[in-house]
Design brief:
By secondary structure, this protein is an alpha/beta fold. Helices cover 42% and strands 11% of the residues. The protein has four domains: 44 residues, no CATH class; 195 residues, Rossmann fold (3-Layer(aba) Sandwich), CATH 3.40.50.450; 45 residues, no CATH class; 69 residues, Winged helix-like DNA-binding domain superfamily/Winged helix DNA-binding domain (Arc Repressor Mutant, subunit A, Orthogonal Bundle). The chain has 18 helices and 14 strands.
């Protein structure tokens, strides 16, 4: 039926999706809720597409929840545009837990921000509170990791359909959440992100939760959208206490009425459910391997994620390269015993070989002066390129940029920017790199 406000309104009018589909075109038109063309599309669905979705859900054990299903989260029904269909993987009963609290923030998080989110979610788990977040890099990942490591549960709300490998670095985290928590989305299987899918996701994060804590954000970050939804839904909105995390977005939210979260218990109403922390709440904690991969080895990372090192090797390299600030990055490690032995053997062979004196290069082999001066320059954009896409290429310049940084530079919301970047990628003018990095395509 779709996820529009019109579909939600019809379900409210008739009581259940099955009752809506029992109506005719004239009924909908007389209500004034949609045009005749929209009514015809609703009552004449694409049977082949529906059958395909049902088959995929059966094959991969993905649950389908509609508002007339007893497992559909009642909290979402308060939304004017509640999802008419939800897809879920994992323990659906968690959506009905009495206390769920959202922890969200930037993908480009600081070490203190990661530590605060990890610690807060771990404290939630200790008191039986379920952490809700968006399964993105950075703060979201730290929140999910903290909840699971402390033996609790977590809810991840996705902005894509199941089966679409968005953020491949998160594959092991999503797998763990499916085992000890629940993943939900209103996007159909294998659907990629759209300009509206992440704001839609953020409204669900806020609606499911008793409160929302924004741990770290820029003034225009995606988590600020979640904060706006929290306000519109009359949910308590929190930021870390002063000095815990440096964050311009959190400073702005504080000025607009958000509260400082000085103890975890405040996020669930200060009911005494969560015990007082054993040491200062804003004290940084050591981070686990997925959040601080330079602190451990491939074997430790694989053990933590519950996978074989051979399966984890490629993902570990990506995570290690992309989740740390430049100043803390280290040379790539020798990743397994076999490569260490092979490289040692090569070094021994090289040392055993007699060294020859290298002959001077011939005139033909010498580099030409013109080659030295040759530079890499950015491709000239087509003259008919829209102004918004020209602005993206202008902001990128010669260096690759993180999506969050590009969003801040252009003053554009991330979901809209992602859509524009995808169009530029199709035109061959930019390329998307691991870790939400973007670079302009250049000609030699």
């Amino acid at each position: 039926m779709g996820t529009s406000a019109a579909a939600s309104s019809l379900i409210r009018e008739y009581g259940a999706p099955s009752n809506v589909l029992a109506q005719n075109t004239d009924s909908f038109c007389n209500l004034g809720k949609m045009t005749r063309a929209q009514a015809k599309r609703l009552l004449d669905p694409n049977d082949a597409k529906v059958s395909e979705i049902l088959a995929l859900c059966r094959e991969f054990n993905w649950r389908i929840l509609t508002p007339d299903d007893r497992l559909y989260p009642e909290r979402l029904l308060s939304l004017p545009d509640f999802p008419s269909v939800l897809f879920a993987e994992g323990d659906v009963s968690l959506l009905h837990e009495p206390l769920l609290a959202a922890v969200v923030g930037t993908r480009q998080a600081s070490r203190r921000g990661l530590s605060f989110a990890y610690r807060l979610a771990a404290d939630f788990s200790a008191g039986g509170v379920v952490t809700v977040s968006g399964s993105a890099l950075g703060i979201d990942s730290a929140a999910h990791e903290g909840a699971l490591t402390a033996g609790g549960s977590t809810v991840a709300v996705l902005g894509t359909g199941f089966g679409f490998n968005y953020l491949p670095e998160q594959v092991f985290l999503r797998r763990r959440i499916a085992g000890d928590g629940v993943l939900i989305t209103e996007m159909p299987p294998f659907a990629g992100p759209t300009s509206s899918s992440f704001p839609q996701r953020n409204r669900l994060i806020a609606a499911l939760s008793h409160s929302v804590t924004v741990v770290e954000s820029g003034e225009g970050g995606g988590s600020m959208i979640t904060a706006r939804f929290a306000r519109s839904q009359n949910k308590p909105l929190f930021v870390p206490p002063a000095g815990a995390v440096r964050s311009p977005g959190c400073d702005l939210l504080l000025k607009k009425g958000a509260s400082e979260l000085k103890a975890p218990d405040l996020a669930v109403g200060g009911k005494g459910i969560l015990p007082d922390p054993a040491f200062p709440f804003d004290m940084p904690m050591p981070l686990p391997p997925p959040l601080d991969p330079a602190a451990g080895s491939l074997a430790q990372y694989a053990l933590y994620c519950g996978v074989d090192p051979r399966e984890a090797q490629e993902i570990f390299a990506v995570v290690r390269r992309n989740t740390l600030p430049e100043e803390t990055k280290m040379p790539e490690p020798e990743t397994d015993l076999f490569s260490i032995i092979a490289q040692a053997e090569e070094r021994e062979k090289a040392a055993a070989k007699p060294r020859r004196k290298k002959a001077p290069p011939s005139e033909a082999e010498k580099p030409k002066e013109t080659d030295k001066k040759k530079k890499t320059v950015r491709s000239s954009p087509p003259p008919d390129l829209p102004e918004n896409e020209r602005a993206i290429l202008g902001a990128l310049g010669k260096e690759e940029m993180l999506l969050d940084a590009l969003s801040a530079a252009l003053g554009r919301e991330i979901p809209v920017l992602m859509n524009e970047v995808s169009l530029l990628e199709l035109k061959g003018l930019v390329k998307l790199l691991p870790g939400n990095r973007i670079a302009a395509v250049r000609d030699a």
